[in-house]
Amino acid sequence: MLDLNNMKRSDFYYDLPQELIAQTPVEPRNASRLLKVDRQTGECAHAHFYDLQKYLKPGDLLVVNDSRVLPARIYGEKADNGSFIEFLLVEQREENVWEILCRPGKKAKVGTRFVFGGGILSAVITDVLEDGNRIARFECEKCSFFSTLDKIGQMPLPPYITEKLKDKERYQTVYSNELGSSAAPTAGLHFTKEQMKEIEAMGVNIGYVTLHVGLGTFRPVKEDKVLDHKMHREHYELPKRTADLINQTKANGGRVIAVGTTSCRTLESVATFFGEIKPCEGYTDIFIYPGYEFKVLDGLITNFHLPESTLIMLVSAFLGYDNTMNAYKTAVEEKYRFFSFGDSMFIS
Q1: Does 332 lie in the same domain as 193?
Q2: What is the pLDDT of residues 167-210, one digit of tens each?
Q3: pTM score, two decimals?
Q4: What whole-number distance in Å separates Cα of residue 73 and Cα of residue 88?
Q5: 127 close to 134: Cβ distance less than 8 angstroms
Q6: 8 A C-beta contact, residue 237 and residue 267
Q7: Average pLDDT for residues 17-40, to the nearest whole number?
Q8: What was the pLDDT predicted at 218?
Q9: Residue of 4, 89, 218, 222 with fewest CB within 10 Å of its CB?
Q10: Is 339 found in the same domain as 239?
Q11: Is the dihedral of CA 69, 60, 306, 336 positive or negative?
């Protein structure tokens, strides 16, 4: 029995064989497996993502995150001596000014200049933050910053993926549109454009939100007590059309189903901040863990997450702790594929 007042990080541990961590995406996208879990009973059923329509009803609403991943990892050299440097873009502060992670950090002192892509992009370190991250001001020789980044940047794949990605677009959802994430909203990677058309044709609406996924999504929970953990901050936007669709769906008795923990966090943040769903944008550091009372969600499509992560805690809050740990045990036994390029769950 989970003690809600004294939750430990170790409560959310499960044993995962290394070979179940997916290193490459499946083809086609929706050929991935789907574990359908009943939120009330915890009962599990095995399917594939292309079977999703069987579990949807006319009048339902899928809410997806249309954030697009930046090719945020760039390799360059120190301008004065050519020594190697790696930058990872974390958050845009203003035009051409970014918070970055870099290694080796000892080279990146204030005032140091670096060049990338043979000189088509350069950067000067303007500040060193308390956590060791840097602030860098970029200059482009010819093109815009983002088009230059598209030429020379690499996808910031999670550390547990060791194989090189052959096609950058496989770490983007087919509906990605708003550039700004440091990691993909991976629950949406399973959709094909054709399946989305089929879903809409059966009377299911699709609404879009934007939450730019930060690198904090990969940061492990270090505190033993769950309630001592501090969440990272991420920028979100909920447009009017989606807000209207959510309110109409609720009024008509339909289900609001979040595709991914990022869509979930966006909707629950807005409902928590304002007491209603309305068009807005801002920053959220909402931390959802068992005991949280959901205000919007009726269903959740999500991948399988790391042990002891804030994401498995969010799933446990929605599905229930015992049901979640049992579902993960089932997924391991049935050799589902885990994490970013892995299989998915549909909880309703």
Answers
A1: yes
A2: 999 999 999 999 999 899 999 999 999 999 999 999 999 999 99
A3: 0.93
A4: 5
A5: yes
A6: no
A7: 98
A8: 67
A9: 222
A10: yes
A11: negative
| Residues sharing a CB contact under 8 Å with residue 27, sequence separation 6 or more, in sequence order | none
Give the residue carrying structure tokens 């845009």. 92
Residue recorded with tokens 């194989």? 163
pLDDT in tens, 299-335: 999 999 999 999 999 999 999 999 999 999 999 999 9
Range of the domain at 327: 9-69+167-347
Same domain for 283 and 319?
yes
SS (H, E, C) the chain: CCCCCCCEHHHHCCCCCHHHECCCCCCCHHHCEEEEECCCCCCEEEEEHHHHHHHCCCCCEEEEECEEECCCEEEEEECCCCCEEEEEEEEEEECCEEEEEEECHHHCCCCCEEEEHHHCEEEEEEEECCCCCEEEEEEECCCCHHHHHHHHCECCCCCCCCCCCCCHHHHCCCCCCEEEECCCCHHHHHCCHHHHHHHHHCCCEEEEEEECCCHHHHCCCCCCEHHHCCCCCEEEEECHHHHHHHHHHHHCCCCEEEECHHHHHHHHHHHHHHCCCCCEEEEECCCCCCCCCCCCCCEEEEECCCCCCHHHHHHHHHHCHHHHHHHHHHHHHCCCCECCCCCEEEEC
